[in-house]
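A note from the maintainers: we've had questions about how concatenated examples are separated. There is no special marker in the raw files; a new sequence line simply starts the next protein. For clarity in this README we add a label.
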Amino acid sequence: MIPGIKVTPGPVPDAPRWNQLCKELQALRLVHAERYRKAGTAAAKKAVIVDARKLLEYNLPELMLCWLGTPWDFNGTAKEPGGGKIACGYFISTIMEGAGFHVQRISLAQQASQNILRTFLPENELQVRASAYKTYREEISRNRPGIYIVGLDTHVGFIVVPENKGHDFRFIHASGSQPWCVVQEDADQAKALQISKYRVHGNITASDAVIRAWLEGTKFPTHR
C-alpha cells in the first residue's frame, strides 16, 4: 500500500444473509403456492401470480447483493457467497436455485447465454440487439420493470429494471474483468454491456408461466 493513500474496501460476501434469505423465500413460496392451489377463480389465481412476482422482484436482487465481492474465476462453482470463486454462468444458476427455482444448477451454468434464457422463456419472448449501447440503454430503461437475464458475446448477467422510471437499471454479474468479482453496476459503469456487440435478454419475472412454475416447484429442464 502506498503511504498516505487510503484504500476503500470493497463489499464483503454475506453468506449468513444469503442462507437466511433463501430459507425465508422458500417459506414464502410455499405459502403463495398454497394460496394458488386453493384459488377458485382465474382472477384469484392471477392475484397470487401478481403477489409472487412482487416477491421475486424484491428478493432476487437482495440475493444477488449477498454475492458482491465474491471472486470470479472462469471455472468457479461456489455454492454460497464467499465460498470460493464463481463464473458468470454459475452466478446465474446459483441465484435461481437459491431463490427456489427447480433448475439443474451445473448443466444450466455451462450453457451458452441464449440457452440459459431459453431454459426459462420461449424464443419469442427473447430480444436480440446489436445496436449501439446508447440505443440499448435507452430501450432497457423504457422496458417493463423486472429481473432480466442478459447474454453478451462471452458473458451473462442480470439486469434489474426498477419500477421507478427515474432510476437507471442495474447490471449485477460475476465480472471477468476488473475488479474480477461479483459486482453491481449502473448503466454508466456497465463496461461489459457497453462493449459487447451482441446482446440477448428476456424478462423472467414478467412471465406468468415462469412465476407459476416457481410456485409449483416445476422443473426447468436445461435448454441445450
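[label: protein 2]
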Amino acid sequence: MRDGELESAFERALEAIAHDGAFPEVEILQHAAHPRHGSVTLSVTIDRPGGADLVLCERIAARINASLEGLATPYELEVESAGLERPLLKPSDYERFKGMRARVVTSLLIDGAKTHRGVLRGLRGENVLLEIGARELPLPMATIKSAHLEFDPRADLRREKRERKGIHGASN
C-alpha cells in the first residue's frame, strides 16, 4: 500500500469524526502525515469548548485506528489537545477568542516588531485587532505567520481569588 492511500483513509476518518454526533463540538484544528523511518506519523490536534481532555483524545485515536485497520502501511498516530495556548488558525478564531490574551507573529515589521502580545479585540476588515496597552494595533491577516492564545497563570489565580471572595463575601 502506498502512503497516499493511508493519507486518504486518514482524511476520510477525520472527516467522519467532524460530522459524528458521538463527538459533539469537536474541532479538528490541524492534521498532518509525515513519512518517518519506513512508516508514517499521523498527527491531529483537536479542541472543543471547555478543552479536549485525555479521554476525548483516546476516543478519537481509537476511532481513527479502527478506520485504518487492515491497511498495510505502518503508522504511528498522535492525537493531542490544542491546550491552553491554542493556535489561532482561521479568521473566526480571532472573533471567537475576543478578550483573551494572544501572541501574534507577523512576517513583516509592524510598529517596529514582528512579535506582538496583547488582548484580542476581533477583526476589522482584513485586520486582526490586538489591544496593546491603551491602544489597538491592526495586524493585516496576510502578514500573520503564526498566532496563539497565551495562558497567563497569574490572571487565572487572580480570577479564582476574586471568585472565592465573591462566594465567601456573599455568605457573610
